Fold:
Amino acid sequence: MAYALEFNGYRGLTVKLYIRFLRILKPKDNYKIKGYVDRIRGRLARVHSEVTDENGNIMAKAYGLFFIDNKIGGE
Structure:
């Protein structure tokens, strides 16, 4: 989710993070992770993500609330 935030030109600190595992994730399987910024209000951003397996089954969903502070991190 932090990458989705940075891809949109922001950097932030995690305020809240909620994860819901829908299926068992096995360490040696391949997964795709997608994330997107839902909305930004003032200095808070809501970001969503999901993990899918090779067959497109959703394995986990998450959303987080980030405090936007572009002064943190590197270049």
Observations:
- The mean pLDDT is 92.
- The chain has one domain: 2-68.
